[in-house]
Amino acid sequence: MKKFGLLPKLLIAIGIGILLGNFASKNLIKLLATFNGIFGNFLGFAIPLIIIGFVAPGIGDLGNGAGKLLAITAGFAYLSTIISGSFAFFTSSIVLPKFLTPGSLTMNAANPEDALVHPFFNVDMPPIMGVMTALLIAFTIGLGIAAIKGDTIKKFMYEFQQIIEKVISNIIIPLLPFHILGIFANMTFAGQVATIMSVFARVFVMIIVLHFIIIIIQYMIAGTVGGRNPFSLLKNMIPAYFTAIGTQSSAATIPVTLRQTKFNGVNEGIAEFVIPLCATIHLSGSTITLTSCAMAVMMLNGLTVSFSTMFPFILMLGVTMVAAPGVPGGAVMAALGLLETMLGFTPTLTSLMIALYLTQDSFGTACNVTGDGAIAIMVNRISGHKL
Questions:
Q1: Residue 100 pLDDT more than 80?
Q2: Sequence-separated (6 or more) residues with CB below 8 Å from residue 165
Q3: What angle do CA 203, 204, 208 make, to 5 degrees?
Q4: N or C end of the chain, less CB within 10 A?
Q5: Residue 126 φ/ψ, nearest 5 degrees
Q6: CATH of the domain at 273
């Protein structure tokens, strides 16, 4: 299985889960549910650690930039992320109700989990702190690192980040296919999988279309600012887009993104500053995917979806996902705490969200890195350079 990427593993796991849900005994489903319960509790325990490990070093890094240039780039990146998330909200509000039946997964139960098979036993793994506490600690440490420019805490946080990245890449990500297998086996056993698969396919198509639209808008603006044909600029970024689909990592795609951005005529110094920075702070594609998937899951389970609920979530996504690691699924891992605290996701809904997000992760990453090139063009012009 090691030769397969994460997406093929997830698709295989979904297929096996559906088969087991149709033909396996209830005891086997309960065994899988037991694994899911333990794994889900471990995820809950890890969420505050993930937030601190991602956000604190990310904010600390922002203090090492070039002052005004840093502020301009970060402002463009955050604005792009928020606009993309808001665009996804309004589009999903119109499109999702056309093919999605609100509350269709509740199966007339008091909550969605009542329809599922329960585990043999549960192992409690309480987190060491709440999500908001973790965020506040991360902000305080990150801003402190940037302010005092000290090395001791900075090195400690970087090493802590490496530990968290190892936890994700060596424990959470390898076990995710088995977790998804168990979730789909349980949902199939409960008679819910037909609804889920129908929604998966349609939401996937909608999200890809949204990605393309936001990329075109970004390059229309960049082309206007830079005085060049936006579609010529976008054409030059195609290698970066497809590289990101293959790697599922903005960080791993930096060399290609940087090369294509310079090929578009961006000043070499500007490109070398903006592209690596945007690889960690510009997440327009990931925000579109997370917002749309979250809304689909909420509607399916009869939860209230409103702009007053989703917009604060989108605003926090732009901060919480800063410096999500260069591993598949980093963005959704960083967002788990927000899903639970701001949108009221239960462990089952969180698991469903992970499955829905990860099947589209590579396309969100591709949208992120392609948009980085547009931001570089705008920063290039504001800095006084021409393409």
A1: no
A2: 53, 325, 327
A3: 115
A4: N
A5: -65, 135
A6: 1.10.3860
Q: Which residues contact 59 (CB under 8 A, 6 or more apart)?
A: 138, 139, 142, 143, 145, 146, 322
Q: Which residue has the higher pLDDT, 111 or 252?
A: 252
pTM value is: 0.75
Report how far residue 100's alpha carbon sits from residue 199's, in angstroms, rounded to the nearest whole number.
7
Of 29, 13, 51, which Cα lies nearest the Cα of 322? 51
Whole-angstrom CA distances from 300 to 44, 196, 346 are 23, 9, 13
Q: How confident is the model at residue 111 (pLDDT cuts 50, 70, 90)?
A: very low
Domain presence at residue 1 = no
In the numeric block, which tokens belong to residue 65?
């930039």
Q: What percent of the chain has pLDDT over 90?
A: 22
Q: How far apart are CA 100 and CA 364, in angstroms?
A: 22
Give residue 112's domain range: 6-382
- pLDDT recorded at residue 6: 64
Half-sphere exposure at residue 23, Cβ-oriented, CA atoms within 13 angstroms: 6
